Amino acid sequence: MNDSGKRKIIIADDSQTFLIYLAILLKRMGFKVIPAESGQEVLKLLKLVKPDAVMLDMHMEPVDGLAVLRCMKEDRETSCIPVVMLSVDSSAETIERCKGIGCASYLTKPVRLSELHEALQDLLFSPVGTKRSHLRVSTSTKIRLSYDGSSEDLYSESLSAGGIYIRKKNPLPVGSEVRVTFPLNGGRELHVGGMVIYTKELFGDEFKVPPGMAVKFEGMTDGDAAVLKDHIGRLFAGDILDGQEENVIRA
């Protein structure tokens, strides 16, 4: 997808640390990000560009997020734009107050990666039927694919909590049962069973992904699922989680 086809999100926060890391995450999720450091700047930007969503910190000066939210909902041209409020305040009273004014979602800081993904998928993609249930990370990692008593080392193209896309010149047929082994941090490995649900040949359509197959994970224990979720978070945002100056994003 070229940049013109990406969903646009205005994000506003008076903490530059939070703004930088949130912008990086949203860009990795495939969004076009327009940062603003104040509520006043958001109101100016709304006159220049119509975003698909706006994310506002509650406590900005001199115009806070609630004031911007009110202005947006009172203006016919911006009232339909979904707004996500961000705050350290997790009280039910504050959340209900924001939703009463018209915010579509409310996330508490430090923001969890899974909650950020879920909120934006619900707001922007569920209405058009293209919601992804799981955060997907692009990763070229060597994995071992076992099937029908044999195994081979291949490379992954993308990974989520629900499955993996594996590059393979001659993909296995849809319905094939497989077992995938991939490395974790610290020299550990995770073994997951699954089934081929989609294959991609080299010829026949636009080259968006290399030849290979999508494997849907099946039969994972709760423990393995938790390990996998943490692993994906580290792949997606490990540099942010390790390098942030303050605890603003959580896996």
Model description:
The chain is α/β, with parallel strands linked by helices and 251 residues long. The protein has 2 domains: 3-131, Response regulator (Rossmann fold), CATH 3.40.50.2300; 137-236, Thrombin, subunit H (Beta Barrel). It is built from 6 helices and 14 strands. It has helices at residues 16-28, 39-48, 65-74, 92-101, 113-124, 222-243, and strands spanning 8-12, 32-36, 53-57, 83-87, 105-108, 111-112, 137-138, 142-147, 150-160, 163-167, 177-183, 189-200, 212-218, 249-250. A 6-stranded antiparallel β-barrel has the order 8-9-10-13-12-11. The protein has a 5-stranded parallel β-sheet with strand order 2-1-3-4-5, sandwiched between helices. Helix 2 (39-48) packs parallel to helix 3 (65-74). The chain starts with 7 loop residues before the first strand and ends with a strand. The model has no long low-confidence stretch (mean pLDDT 92).
Protein traits:
alpha/beta; 2 domains; 251 residues; five-stranded parallel sheet; six-stranded antiparallel barrel; 6 helices; Rossmann fold; Thrombin, subunit H
Strand order of the largest sheet: 8-9-10-13-12-11
What's the CATH H-level homologous superfamily of the largest domain?
Response regulator
> CATH top level of the largest domain?
Alpha Beta
Tell how many strands the DSSP assignment holds. Answer: 14
Shape: elongated
Ranges where pLDDT stays below 50 over 5 or more residues in a row are none
